[in-house]
């Protein structure tokens, strides 16, 4: 893999796979994440087309480990709203 040499968020446009551009699922990050900044997360969500950034309170870079209930609640809500957790084919 070659290092990225452009603007910090530009690489996502080129790197996002075509099918991922239709993603409408939450992209979680912890509210005190010092690695993935709000701007970085928003740029990634934008690169995916319909991805939406979701902030997990009282969590850092690993919200699924630090606040599993809150993180999985976001995922469960998304699965219920999109029907992705049903037996239908996506």
TrEMBL record:
Residues 1-12 have a biased composition (Basic residues). Residues 1-22 are annotated as: Disordered. InterPro entries: AB_hydrolase_fold. This is Hydrolase. It comes from Streptomyces minutiscleroticus.
